[in-house]
Amino acid sequence: MAITVTNQKPAVLDALHTISCTGDYDPMPAIQQTLVDPLLQPLNPNAPASITDAQGADLTGHISDLFLSCLGDTLNVTSEQTVKEVLGQTLINFDQGTRLPVAELFAVQAAQQNKMPAPSPRVLYTAQADVLPAAKALLAGSGEASAFFASVAYTFHPDTLGFWFQSSAAFDGFKTWLSQQTQTMASALPPATTKLLNDFTALSLKGLTESLLVRKDDCDANDEHSFARVLVHMLMNYVEQQRARASQQNTAMDAGVLPFTIGELFCPRSLVLVNVEAHARATPAKITGEWNLINQSLSSPVKVVSNTSLSKLTSLPRAAARAAALGASQQPGQPGSRSAQVAFRKQPPSKLDLFSDITRVLRRMGKVAKSHNIFRTTAATFLKANRRNPDDFNKPGRITSVQYMPDLHIYIDTSGSISEENYQEAVMMLIRIAKKLNVNLYFNSFSHFLSQEVMLRTENKSAAQIWKEFRRIPKVSGGTEYTQIWQYINASRTRQRRLSLMVTDFDWLPPSKRQDHPKNLYYAPCSARDWSSMVDLAKRYADSMKHIDPSVRQRLLGMVV
């Protein structure tokens, strides 16, 4: 889609907003003021700015709707592309070709401002090379807050709203200011909010971060003067005052906003308070561990938000880590730059094509210490006597070595879009491949549920016998959900080491938020039915996965050449 922008003054978006904590909760005016109005500011005041698409349709009045369509539970590829084109032509600092979702536009803007390349399989951001130097520079006054924000965002991609403070003393200064402000409005605050604010002022930010859960979901804690609304309103007001003071006195700010994602910026479910000085003095491993813990807590399906006491985001994972440490003390490949170059097959793959692709991936993964996939090799050697002529030293003997390839774990899509015929065709294909590889299989069926894991022994059995065993295994049915498989694999180191193969029709769209995609998970078509439609769905899936795994096209076994 070609976007045409006329008479627009190139803009820099500012994440600071002050949604009122009184009345009904309505973030739309703040979204309009923060995201939309800067894009429509005219270069010539005598004429309005306009944005049109390739067909000449006026998009000027629909920019806010386009932004909202990029913040749904699943990725809207068309809206993502349109908004990125709009931002690429209206912002001073924006990479239109970024693989990151629109939700992370503030991170992209900050990175472009500091000339930081977009993260990719070949451009990796780490705590040691990026976060630590940026924190030191910000603490010393020689670096920009935007560089620190971009380094954290590009390294860890947390789906939360953050606020940075230069030091624990700076955070104490905010708490003092907060106490003064809340005293003036004490009569209007509900008792529960007053208690939670008092508990908040008892927090310490001497560590790297302090994180809180403030909402169960977007509809929670939106009442007038709720703790979530008051706290965010006060934090934004404080940053705004800090900015005004720094501008008047020509001094550095000691607090700021970290708008990691748009959704969390306007309706945060969690808050992360960041100590820049602690980051500057910490080891890279400690920084990485802290933010990985935050991401782990954010992705946890169980979140408890209390109305009577502060709910810390990382309390459960930290408690589990302490328990694990206590228990331990008591007891003695992937190339990504070719993703855009791979082409889809014009014809369905043969059994030999799939076998070749699976074998290639297994070899790339290398050997493991132990598995059900045994690989024996025989070689001639003079270190061992010849079995037929043991006294003839001129004849070599034979030595057999046993090695283990990664186990093969199959996840078969049994959702409503997969017919019994498709299921049988997929299973028979896998049985033939397993027989050819001479390996056993781990197996799950999945829809929006995941069946129990089963190991199927294929050695010394006919294809008909194996199919008979498959038919005895109950399979789930319903909708389609891939992320449960990602989480299931990532939850076990044993499963992470297996070659996981998802057999599916690709009729699913990934979430708009980033999630960890398993390193050794690959995909295969469930059948040869209507191959052109299967390819279209696979292309759509690959395009919508760019923000999660940009090299996913190379994981589509039997589909690309």
Could you walk me through the main structural features you see in this protein, from its secondary elements to its overall organization?
The protein is α/β, with parallel strands linked by helices and 561 residues long. Helices cover 41% and strands 14% of the residues. The protein has a five-stranded mixed sheet with strand order 5-3-6-4-7, with helices on both faces. β10, α15 and β11 form a beta-alpha-beta unit. The radius of gyration is 28 Å and the shape is globular.
Question: Topology, please?
Answer:
Blueprint: E1 4-6, H1 28-36, E2 50-52, H2 63-69, H3 77-90, H4 105-113, H5 127-140, H6 145-156, E3 161-165, H7 168-184, H8 191-201, E4 209-213, H9 227-249, E5 255-259, H10 262-266, E6 270-275, H11 276-281, H12 284-299, E7 311-312, H13 315-330, H14 351-365, E8 373-385, E9 396-405, E10 408-413, H15 420-437, E11 441-446, E12 454-456, H16 463-472, H17 483-490, H18 493-496, E13 499-504, E14 521-525, H19 531-544
Parallel strand pairs: 3-6, 10-11, 10-13, 13-14
Antiparallel strand pairs: 1-2, 3-5, 4-6, 4-7, 8-9, 11-12
Helix pairs in contact: 2-3, 4-6, 5-6, 5-12, 7-8, 14-15, 15-16
